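User: Here's a chain of 272 residues. Predict its fold as tokens.
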Amino acid sequence: MKLVASFLFFASLALSTLATNCPNNGVLSSDGTHCYQFINQNQDWWTAEGICKAFGVHLPSVTNLFVNTDLAKIASTGITNSTTIWIGAANNNAQSKWTWTDGTKWSFTDWAAGQPGSATPRCVYLDVKSGLWSSSDCNAKRPYICATPNNAAKCPPTCPSGWAYYEETKSCYKVYHNANWADARSYCESVGASLTSLLSLSELQFVNDFARTGVDMTNLQEMTWIGLYSPFKDADWFWVDGREFDFQWWAPSQPDSPGRENCAQLITDNNG
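Assistant: Prediction complete.
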């Protein structure tokens, strides 16, 4: 489960909803969904994935920035002979399509500058210091982690005080006040959350309803920052948590002023 926040900004945060025991001295992910087994032996990507599969699991898939940061942090303490590890992403087909070995939908990336590279076939490794990804020849040898789903009995989801839980996204949300977009983003990340991404109309409606509670709609300074921004002059837009920008709900004539207005806000009214 994640935490999401808004200044007026809206933040989201991932929380654990599972029991905390991992078998075989595995390390539990912060969101409680996986146990990570460290393998401090250098193997090529194929062999690493094959060893994980022999135990009925896979190299780790990474679905969002929270998981990516958590995996890098955990790996930095458990992997002793390298600063990089294989993860379960590869591009081994003629369609040049990246996939996760466990079948997870490809919806998040965190490539380092200049990546992915052009080697074929291409497999992905994670730099545990920066959290950034690079691709390389799959025959290169690195340590790795096997990720086991934590199938322990679920505990009721619990959000920190002042946060609201939304079942569809299994996330906690909170509204904050009085900050510019950059400060809002920094604050969210300092508490382990992120400015919210909006991936569906139902999530947008939930965030809209929650954010406008008690808001003076005549004060445009209280419109709600979300985690959407355009860092370049070509007007491409991105979510700060790395999610795919494939759901849009722009107001008429928006976005405008490319290169000058490069952060997005939610008009918290009856329509969103």
